[in-house]
Design goal:
22 helices; Hydantoin permease; about 65% helix; about 500 residues; mainly alpha
Length: about 500
């Protein structure tokens, strides 16, 4: 008796089994799942300590509770864009690092992914490992364990091993575990919120610490950029939607993805803002102990560790797909392991050899100038093509193939990326660099708005002028037979 579709799907993407697919197109008979699963995937990865830190920074900048909450809401609206990007997954059956071949060409995409995307993932892996490990060090110290170097190295390695185990198993295991992680972290988030709210200084509601007029607006806009940097770093939402059937509701895919990131980000950001009314948020990991019950402080530290693990699960999984998209002919499970080992090495260097964590954070501050335009280009391409992506055509590397453009490069994509990033850099206001536009506007950082808008306009104009056939082209992604491996020999083995 022939296996049915559910049995076939389970054999290639089953819980507790190493996922067989990488960047190759998921066949129609192996598509499965429901859009609501995406909510738990994104919620689990975003019940993260970083959002508390970012919310607390708004208080450090001098914003009162009302202004801070408004900024948290506004900055997290970028999750709507991440939801939009997710709809390219079911229709193409491929991850974001393959769909982006439409924007940069089948060969140009290797440069874009290798130079811009993949290094950003590695940096975020290292930052998450550092944050989780620092909380692990504090937890070990709190319960009376030695915190000498061997113990600290063990904490880093243990955190990485748990993360890598789930990332290597892949999609089905990530989806199944996400509900459990969300519930566990959600309970801790509620308790933390209650503790913070009951100690809050609500007089802060009307206080703005002397900020008025232009200075107040400049600070709020800078805050939106900082808060928006988190959703803007998740331009890989198609990776987790690509197993859904191609006729899945686009609204459901976009909505569940966006809500999964938006809700925990807003709640935790708000906790950080409110906590800033009573504690010093320059060092929240330590100072929050003053408003937490003694029994809950070690639980809070464990929440930080687990939140960094769940965030890194997605980061490591997608970084492995990026490495395949660059052209590395290795299975996804191997590329994930390679990226994980590299992330551990960088984190250990940062923690034990040099103050590299601050350097990485500065790089990530500047990365907003690149991430915003990248997501704007992706979203614009979805709109222009009306989300019509043929997964097999995206894997066709033959000269003259549908995404060959000019010798394998879509110059409209690179031009838009350059112009959008340049415009964003002019508007940046970071600890390392203040752009001329930000300086002229009394420090207002408009990079998260200006960069994407310029990239959107440049890409829409470039693709219509340079490649008008692509703008008007209609494809049928469900009936065209796949090219043989001999016809696309440059694809990595999976």
């Amino acid at each position: 008796m022939a296996p049915n579709a559910e049995q076939t799907a389970a054999s290639s993407d089953g819980f507790g089994q190493v996922e067989r697919h990488g960047i190759d197109q998921v066949p129609l008979e192996e598509r499965h799942g429901e859009p609501r699963e995406l909510f738990w995937v994104w919620a689990a990865s975003n019940v993260n300590y970083l959002y508390i830190v970012l919310g607390g920074l708004l208080a450090v900048f001098g914003l009162g509770i009302v202004q801070g909450l408004l900024v948290v809401l506004a900055g997290n609206l970028f999750w709507l864009a991440i939801g939009l990007l997710a709809i390219s997954g079911p229709v193409s059956g491929t991850p974001s690092s393959v769909v982006s071949r439409s924007m940069f060409g089948v060969l140009g995409n290797r440069v874009y992914t290798g130079v811009f995307n993949w290094p950003t993932f590695i940096a975020y892996e290292a930052i998450n490992l550092c944050l989780g490990s620092l909380a692990g060090f504090a937890l070990a110290d709190h319960i009376g364990l030695s915190t000498d170097r061997p113990v600290r190295i063990l904490v880093v390695v243990a955190t990485a091993v748990v993360t890598l185990a789930i990332s290597v198993y892949g999609h089905a295991t990530i989806v199944r575990m996400s509900g459990f992680f969300t519930a566990l972290l959600g309970v801790g988030m509620v308790i933390l919120g209650v503790c913070v709210v009951t100690h809050a200084d609500w007089h802060h509601v009307t206080a703005s610490h002397g900020l008025h007029g232009g200075a107040l607006w400049a600070t709020m806009i800078a805050g939106i950029t900082i808060i928006g940097s988190s959703p803007l770093s998740w331009g890989i939402s198609a990776d987790y939607a690509r197993y859904l059937p191609p006729d899945t509701s686009k609204l459901a895919v976009a909505g569940w993805t966006a809500l999964g990131g938006f809700i925990p980000a807003v709640v935790l950001g708000a906790i950080g803002v409110v906590a800033g009314s009573v504690v010093d948020m320059n060092d929240p990991q330590t100072s929050l102990a003053g408003v937490l019950p003694d029994w809950f402080y070690p639980v809070f530290l464990l929440m930080i560790v687990l939140g960094c693990v769940t965030n890194n699960i997605l980061t490591m999984y997608s970084s492995g797909l990026c490495l395949q998209a660059i052209g590395i002919p290795l299975p996804r499970s191997v590329t994930v392991l390679f990226d994980g080992v590299l992330g551990v090495a960088i984190a250990c260097y940062a923690l034990f050899v040099s103050d590299f964590t601050s350097t990485l954070n500065n790089i990530l501050e500047l990365s907003v100038a690149l991430l915003g335009p990248s997501i704007a280009i992706y979203a614009t391409d979805i709109v222009i093509r009306r989300n019509r992506y043929d997964g097999q055509e995206l894997h066709d590397f033959r000269p003259g193939s549908p995404f060959w453009f000019d010798r394998g490069v879509n110059w409209a994509g690179f031009a838009a990326l350059f112009l959008g990033t340049a415009a964003a850099v002019l508007c940046l206001n970071t600890t390392l660099y203040v752009g001329p536009v930000a300086h002229a506007l009394d420090g207002a950082d408009l990079s998260s708005l200006v960069g994407p808008v310029v990239a959107l306009i440049a890409y829409a104009a470039g693709i219509r002028l340079r490649y008008p056939a692509h703008a008007a082209r209609t494809v049928n992604h469900t009936t065209r037979p796949a090219p043989s491996l001999a016809e696309r020999p440059t694809e990595p083995a999976v």
